[in-house]
Amino acid sequence: MASGDLFTSELVGGGHQVKRCIANIVPRVLGDKINPSDQVSKDLQEVIDSCAAIKADTMVIACNTLQLWLPRVNTRGLKVLTTFEVVDNYIKETKTNPIWLGTWPLVREIDKTRRYKTLSSMGETDLQNLVQELIWRVKGVEGSDISGAGEIELIKDEKKMVERGTSLFDCLKVIKCDGVVLGCTELPILVDKYLKDYDFGELILINPAKLMAENLKGSGS
């Protein structure tokens, strides 16, 4: 819920009329693996059908990982905008190659096509594991569904989350890169709400939700 609130606020702040759909979609990630159940695509189809029924112009998918299920559903003619598209536009315009930070399932799919640079593709497996852990920790602290998290010690402890988040960005600042894409909706929450006093130095943080709002504004949607 909290991650959806932040995503929606970015779109509204960009001057868009937004009807938020509270989607009851089963967890997309179980531990660090993709949920193999067909229920994910069935739940997504129900959401798309609901959006089509109210004659929405554009459907924006807030969950970065959820876009992996788009090929398995019927979009009913809706224009569906994903974070992949807006990040692609950003990379093209800036001529940069930032590191995508996200869930393991999404990162594995990205690595298959080399669409973006990832910590995994750079051999930084431990850091990618930390990103996945932090996504679950943010969910735990924010009161979101953590049923698929597995065993993570003190998952609802804010102090532990901040400590682990600080460790991640301390390491990222050392890596030479064109910035990092906060490619999971929990990551901007971690940065903006819990690490607001942290010194990110020259590390460029790219929020797909903000890119989405700018893209929609530019397209007149």
From TrEMBL:
Q: Which GO terms describe its molecular function?
A: racemase and epimerase activity, acting on amino acids and derivatives
SUPFAM superfamilies referenced in this protein's UniProt entry, alphabetically: Aspartate/glutamate racemase
Q: Where is the signal peptide?
A: none
Q: What is this protein called?
A: Aspartate racemase
Q: Which organism is it from?
A: Candidatus Collierbacteria bacterium GW2011_GWB2_44_22
Q: Highest lineage ranks of the organism?
A: Bacteria, Candidatus Collieribacteriota
